[in-house]
Amino acid sequence: MSEGYPQAPTAGVPGHMAIHGAGNPHDGHSHPDHPKLQHHFDDMGQQAEASTLGMWVFLVTEIMFFGGLFMAYLLYRYRSPDGFAEASNHLNVIWGAINTIVLIVSSLTMALAVRAAQTSARPKVQVGWLIATMILGSAFLGVKVIEYADKFTHHLVPGPDFQWPGEYPAAAEMFYSLYFCMTGLHALHMIIGIGIMLVITAMAWRRQFDAAYYTPVEVAGLYWHFVDIVWIFLFPLLYLIGYHYGAH
Amino acid sequence: MATLNYLNNGHGLASWLLTKDHKRIALLYLASITVFFFIGGLFAFLIRLELLTPAGDLMTAENYNKMFTMHGVVMVFFFLIPSIPAVLGNFFIPIMLGAKDLAFPRINLISWYIYVLGGIFTLTAALSGGVDTGWTFYTPYSTAAANSHVVTAALGVFITGFSSILTGLNFIVTIHRMRAPGMTWFRMPLFVWSHYATSLIFILGTPVIAITILLVAAERVLHFGIFDPALGGDPILFQHLFWFYSHPAVYIMILPAMGVVSEIVQAFARKNIFGYSFVAFSSLAIGIIGFFVWGHHIFVAGQSVYAGMIFSILSFIVAIPSAIKVFNWTATIYRGSVSLESPMLYAFGFVGLFTIGGLTGLFLAAMGLDIHVHDTYFIVAHFHYIMVGGAIMGYLGGMHYWWPKISGKMYPEAWAKFAALIVFVGFNLTFFPQFLVGYLGMPRRYHMYPPEFQVLNVMSTLGATVLSVGYVLPMVYFTYSIFKGKPAPANPWGAKGLEWEIPSPPPTENFPVTPIVTHGTHQYAPSKEVGVV
Amino acid sequence: MFTNFPLFPQQASAQAGPVDAIYFFMVAVTAFFSILIAALIVLFAIRYRRRHREEVGYAIHGSLALELLWTVIPFFIVMVMFVWGARVFFDMYRPPAGAMEIYVVGKQWMWKVQHMDGQREINELHVPIGRPVKLIMGSEDVLHSYYIPAFRVKADVIPGRYNVLWFTATKPGTYHLFCAEYCGTKHSGMVGSIVAMEPQAFQAWLSGGGASASPVAAGEKLFQDLACNTCHMGDTQGRGPVLTNLFGSSVQLQGGVTVVADEAYIRESIVNPQAKIVAGYQPIMPTFQGLVTEEQLLQLMSYVRSLSKQGTAPAPAGTSAPQQPQASDGPAVEKK
Q1: pTM of the prediction?
Q2: Which of C68, C69, C187 to mutate to test the interface with B (most CBs of B within 10 A)?
């Protein structure tokens, strides 16, 4: 490797590192930049890759975030399996199952929304799928409100008011502490997800997405699917394992 | 200067507070972490004043407990963790990669606001009466017994965590996707490698402390009993979750400093690093193995012997990559062209103090010995050698190395050398006696202590006084240099690296054209050897 | 003026020697490498100082042999440290059979001590030299840590469970006792002294005034007062399991699991009776959490232990784990 590359235009220092113009200045493009290309990216491909990678990295963070709670759940479930089974039996499996189906369908509508943007479908189609996703998400939250209200009326909220008729009051209170932490945090993610969907819907309505630029829909979709998957773990852990146990 | 650069391209408060330029955001961080550093330093100084005498005569026990808690919270979460990544990393990673900015400039700005919001929460807790749980927030004291503003302070830490996560996310995506043509992974500066490892810890560890702190708040406010034994919870679970983040957090503090030292040693020996790939991979090794050593904080809490042995052996093994770095830095100077300017003095100080800090860490990994020194001043001395002797030395070294680039001005070198000397002497005088008093058995977080420990404590307080002078000096001459300093040339040190090829201070877009990189950083002399070692 | 300026702690227990030995080894390693690195840096910085402005260093990219050398050598050094540290730890972890047992309860901000023959102490602990002493420790409120620097021993005291600390004092004297785990406002006031005495002096101290009921007797009285005996009767007619010969035995639980009835099991059965139900019994026992203090729990436990044959006769070697408590009641202690 020899020294002696052309001097960088702005540097006047001997012994510099070998850099020179890449011939990629902004106004030198053969085709005009996409209006959505931010100044610090070279092209739309780089920008889209950065955004999706960013969301994946964020989802890794989210996994660790929920991971702490799953750790606590595993520990206490291991310590009092019978108490957790008893407490779990007081959850309404029907509501839980309905919510699971609602979320799975919402993942489908989300995927279709991404697909619509990807294939440059008419804004109405894109908006339609997005609104369907939001409606399903809201339905999920509505069911959650019903379930929470039920817990409040039956004194199943941990704290001084907690009352447990069964054999394992301490384990049941721990179970419901974890239940509220886990589902509450999940519901918070759903609410944030719906907020993101509102923004994306407005952008779709203003015809901002097509085959050349649909990263926001895709990234929002990744987030939405992640929140769904968290529920796919929560549902069996909180509702089902104890249910089967109790059926023995 | 008439030419347009990032500092004079846009005036007024809004042009700073709404900037998306990574360099300006770095300066926003610089200003805010400097404030927190001096707040945390003030707490430290009051602690040392109290410990001048064995009796608790300066302040009440309650206030003393609040002092060391606030010192720890502020220094760890609001100074050490963001210091090098958010200031120097933010400023130089895009430039070193040949990029115009980080991948997500808006998220970068948001993360600063999140940091400030978290800081406001924590300072509110401090001003409205303080918090006295220790920075570790151990349960059940923090959830069931403490009467202070635990929730406010904890929320501050929780919020600031998101600032770290977003910074780490931004770095990872930038390093993956924003490298200039020809900037292959093994041509990247080691500073970037160390920040890559740091960012991994940011995104994998920080969410765990976030959820843990949230559970502590839920326990205090809603009486959920996850950690409270009176409610069926397990206080040791808290320690596991806490140290799962907080031990790797030590590597968050030290890895970036190691990156800085790698740059400085190369620049002032005018020689490429010895064993580039070993130094690069040792950063990753520290980041990854560092996630599996947290149990050495729990040796005396009665965890199973077998868990203890696994944590012990891994804690020893995580020392190896650090040792590799130290040996490689030393070997780098061999047959170099060594110039002892102030950044190099800090780098040498770092290597020496980090060596002592790292080796005394082995004492704590040895289970039988840790039983005696756990929770004594020996621990305090050890981690201050790492965090103050290591991380802050690295931070100051980096600030001196890159200040001409950041500000476009030269600082008075004689004063800088003097300050480096003062910091080194003051540091050792402060913390070396703590090894001795710790082995004698003085527990940490003690407001009063038996009189036979006084001599060593007086030495320590004396050292802290010297040290604080050493920390104020750079503040003074850096500020002075902004107004009166000589303009800095593009490359005052004759160093190699993309950041030294653009003007000082850099233009807003960093590079007028995207650079093409043809070989690794810090290649000073033509080399006959082929390949990367 | 340097009469009271120690730089090294006293060695007053059998544990102190081994701990200090590994400490000195590690200090030597630390000093060696710190001085080596510092000397090399100074040497290179002088030898290879920059002689003119444009001078650059010699291009050396590295050496695989050297990298391996300074990876492998530190690796072996730290493995020596690991094995050594773990061996010292093992010896400190397992109390020897026949250790003299003492109950310790930590609470904000004092240490309450109960000897098996009824002597009680606060913030002090009298022990004989030359004999293993095993502290069984619980906490009334938050985390504490029982730390005797001169003995090089320390163990956290954790609410909701028992931790064990043992030592053999070797030198008569008075030593510091510290709480090492931050526990609130008067953490630094949660200190006291350990008084190590010659065995005869210790016996004299034990039989001195101030002795109240032994933990076994106090536990027996509590057992009546709390009406435990209405269900836990001496025969199998009771609604609760028989406690005679329970301690140290294996208990068959509902669901087929078997547990050993140790201190943790007894404690849990009192404060959280529903956690483990003995096979063949109903989960009808109410919790006594909040009704009994940690000290009373320890008294109840020593009573339950005294009902066990293992409590009065040493267990045959090989049938009990090293942690299995041995002689626990007062007379057995005095016999030795």
Answers
A1: 0.89
A2: C187
